[in-house]
Design goal:
Largest sheet: none
C-alpha cells in the first residue's frame, strides 16, 4: 500500500486529482496555493472540455432539429406547454446553457476560481432537469441535454476533484476510528455505482415511453401492466414524468458515487449527507410508490419493480458511510472544530486508521471474488431476515394464489412488500434494529384480516401464521461481523 493511500492522499483518486504532501506535517498556505496552481495546470484539458461542451450545447438545437418530429406524451397526457412552446423552451434552455458553459469554462482557465466551476456544475444540473420540465419534444433533445449535463457535472467536480479543495483538505488515514473497514473505499462505492447505473438505464427506458419517444413498453411478466402503471392517474398526478424523475435520481446517485476520496466520510461530510438523503428517504418513497401499484392501479410493472429492487440494497449499503460521517461531525466539538465548518469543508483525521484491509481496485481482474466481498462489508444475511424476506414474498403472492377478498389482498400486498423492504435494509449491520419494524408489520398482518368483514377463513389463517412468524423472527439480532466504534451500542 502506498503512503498516499495510507494517509488518505488524493492521488489515490486518479491522476487528475490534486496531490498533497503527506508526511504528517501541516501545509502552509503558500504550500497549498502552490499545490492548487500545479493541479490546475495538470487539469487544463478539463476546463477546455467545459468550453467545448458549451459550444456543442449552443448549436444542438440547430444540428439536432428539435422541432422536426414532435413526440406526444403517452396515454393522452395533457401537459402545461403547447408543442411550439416545448420546442422554444428547449432551444432557449440549450442556447443559454451553452453560453453560460462557455463563459464559466473560460473563467475557469485561471486557477482559484471555484465559483465559476460550481456555476458550470449547476448549469449541468439544469441540463439534466430541463427535458423533464419542458417535456423535451424529441428523443434527441432529451438524450443530448441529459448526457451533456451529466458530463459537465463530472468535468467540474468529479474528474478534477472539488473546486479549491487543495486549499482546505486535511490529510490523514482513510478508515474511521474504531471501525474494522472503510465505508468510503472504492469497493464499497463500486457496488452503489453499478446499481445506480443499471437503475439509470431501466428508468430511462420507462421515461422514453412516458415522454412519447417510443410507442410501446415491454413487460415480460405482467402483460399490459407496465403500460397501465405508466399511464395511470397516479403517474399522471405529477406535472413531470415520474419515470424521468427516477432516471434523474439514479443519474445523481451514479455521479455522486464517484465523488470524493476514500476518506470522504471525513473530507466531504456534506456530500455524504446529500447522497444519503438521495438514496435513503427518497429511495424509500420510490419503493413505496412502486409497492402501492397493485392497490392503487391494480397492476404490477416489471421494470418498476426492477428499479425498486435496485434501489433497495442501495439503502442498506449506503447507511454505514452516513453513520461514519455523523460520528465525525459529533466529534467535531471535542476536536475543537465548528460542526458547520466541518460539514462543508471536512475535518481533521483525529483517531483515523490506515485502511489495511481493503483490496486494491486494480486487483479486480485477478481477484474478483475478493473485491466483491469487500463491496458488501457491513452487510450480513441472518437466516431470520432471509426467512422474513421469503414470508414477505409469499404474502405478496397470496392475492393471486388464494381467494382472500379485496381488503385482505391489499393488506397482504402492502404488508408483504414492506416486510421485504424492512428485512433487506436491516441486513445492513448499522441499521439492524430496523428488524423490529417487521414485528410491528407482523402484528398488523395478523390482526388486520381478523377485523375485516370480507376476509375469509383462509385470509385470517394466513395472516395469523405469517404475522406470528414475523414477530418471532424479529427477536434474534443475527450475526454482526464488523465494529463501528460507539455505534456498536445501537446495534441491538
Amino acid at each position: 500500500m502506498s503512503s498516499e493511500q495510507e494517509h488518505g492522499g488524493m492521488a489515490s483518486r486518479g491522476v487528475t486529482r490534486p496531490m498533497h504532501g503527506g508526511g504528517g506535517h501541516e501545509m502552509t498556505k503558500e504550500d497549498r496555493c502552490d499545490q492548487l496552481r500545479q493541479h490546475h495546470a495538470r487539469t487544463q484539458w478539463v476546463y477546455w472540455s467545459i468550453i467545448l461542451a458549451g459550444v456543442w450545447t449552443l448549436f444542438a438545437p440547430v444540428t439536432l432539429g428539435y422541432g422536426a418530429e414532435i413526440a406526444e406524451p403517452s396515454g393522452g397526457r395533457s401537459i402545461w406547454l403547447s408543442d411550439a412552446a416545448r420546442i422554444t423552451a428547449m432551444q432557449v434552455s440549450d442556447v443559454a446553457s451553452g453560453l453560460l458553459l462557455i463563459f464559466f469554462g473560460w473563467r475557469s482557465l485561471q486557477p482559484d476560481r471555484p465559483y465559476s466551476l460550481w456555476a458550470a456544475c449547476f448549469v449541468g444540473v439544469w441540463l439534466t432537469f430541463a427535458p423533464l420540465v419542458f417535456w423535451a419534444p424529441s428523443a434527441a433533445a432529451y438524450l443530448n441535454a441529459t448526457v451533456v449535463g451529466a458530463a459537465v457535472i463530472a468535468l467540474t467536480i468529479l474528474v478534477p476533484g472539488m473546486p479549491n479543495m487543495p486549499m482546505y483538505m486535511k490529510m490523514g488515514p482513510n478508515q474511521p476510528p474504531g471501525w474494522t473497514y472503510n465505508p468510503s473505499s472504492w469497493p464499497q462505492r463500486a457496488i452503489l455505482i453499478a446499481l445506480a447505473f443499471v437503475g439509470w438505464l431501466v428508468s430511462r427506458y420507462l421515461a422514453a415511453y412516458q415522454l412519447g419517444y417510443i410507442e410501446s413498453v415491454w413487460d415480460p411478466f405482467f402483460g399490459d401492466g407496465t403500460r397501465q402503471v405508466l399511464d395511470s392517474k397516479m403517474s399522471h398526478s405529477l406535472p413531470v414524468s415520474d419515470a424521468g424523475l427516477g432516471a434523474l435520481a439514479f443519474t445523481f446517485e451514479f455521479l455522486m458515487g464517484w465523488m470524493g476520496s476514500q476518506a470522504r466520510w471525513r473530507t466531504m461530510p456534506w456530500m455524504v449527507g446529500f447522497f444519503g438523503i438521495l438514496v435513503i428517504p427518497l429511495g424509500l418513497v420510490h419503493i413505496f410508490l412502486v409497492i402501492s401499484q397493485p392497490v392503487v392501479v391494480g397492476s404490477w410493472c416489471t421494470f418498476c419493480l426492477l428499479a425498486a429492487a435496485l434501489m433497495l440494497p442501495m439503502i442498506g449499503l449506503s447507511a454505514d458511510e452516513v453513520v461514519a460521517m455523523l460520528q465525525h461531525l459529533r466529534g467535531a466539538k471535542r476536536r475543537g472544530e465548528s460542526r458547520w465548518r466541518v460539514f462543508w469543508l471536512g475535518g481533521a483525521p483525529e483517531g483515523s486508521q490506515p485502511d489495511e484491509r481493503t483490496p486494491e481496485v486494480p486487483e479486480l481482474p485477478r481477484k474478483p471474488g475478493l473485491l466483491a466481498r469487500a463491496s458488501v462489508w457491513g452487510m450480513t444475511l441472518p437466516w431470520t431476515l432471509v426467512l422474513s424476506v421469503a414470508i414477505g414474498i409469499f404474502l405478496m403472492a397470496v392475492p393471486g394464489t388464494f381467494d382472500v377478498g379485496k381488503p385482505a389482498a391489499s393488506i397482504f400486498h402492502l404488508g408483504g412488500a414492506l416486510v421485504v423492504t424492512t428485512a433487506v435494509i436491516a441486513m445492513a449491520e448499522v441499521v439492524r434494529p430496523l428488524r423490529f419494524l417487521d414485528a410491528l408489520l407482523g402484528l398488523a398482518i395478523g390482526i388486520g384480516p381478523l377485523l375485516l368483514d370480507g376476509a375469509g377463513g383462509t385470509a385470517r389463517l394466513i395472516g395469523i401464521v405469517a404475522g406470528l412468524a414475523l414477530v418471532v423472527l424479529a427477536v434474534p439480532r443475527g450475526k454482526v461481523r464488523d465494529r463501528y466504534a460507539n455505534w456498536d451500542k445501537v446495534i441491538v
